[in-house]
Design the sequence.
């Protein structure tokens, strides 16, 4: 088990569901038949239906969020693009740090201007004391 950050809105929805169902530690959030694990085929059918109802026909036919697992990649990419340290992303995702660049190196973007500023600031020399040399 590991702690993973969750936005306030889905956290509230999950806590409401847990309270309404009277769930205890070890209970499944969404059980299948006979309180067992929800079958993968059920999840895939629900996901396909949700995609069909929310995406345009063009996007539905594309690879966009084709699998539920694709949401994990989107989440990790967003965390990395937001500048969350890779060690934290790896811990939350249950990955090792070396896996992140191997998997997400081509997905990380939007940080170049900030990185250039940091490099430039790190190399700045202090103002000379006394005003002249």
Sequence:
């Amino acid at each position: 088990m590991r702690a993973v950050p969750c936005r306030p809105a889905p956290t509230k929805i999950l806590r409401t569901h847990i309270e309404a169902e009277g769930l205890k530690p070890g209970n499944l959030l969404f059980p299948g038949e006979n309180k067992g694990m929800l079958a993968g085929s059920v999840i895939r059918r629900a996901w396909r239906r949700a995609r069909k109802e929310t995406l345009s026909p063009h996007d539905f036919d594309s690879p966009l969020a084709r699998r539920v697992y694709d949401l994990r990649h989107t989440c990790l990419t967003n965390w990395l693009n937001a500048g969350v340290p890779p060690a934290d992303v790896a811990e939350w995702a249950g990955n090792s740090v070396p896996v992140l660049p191997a998997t997400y190196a081509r997905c990380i973007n939007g940080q170049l201007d900030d990185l250039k500023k940091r490099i430039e600031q790190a190399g700045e020399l202090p103002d000379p004391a006394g005003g002249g040399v």
User: Anything to note?
Assistant: The CA atoms of residues 116 and 122 lie 10 Å apart. The chain is about 55% helix and 0% strand.
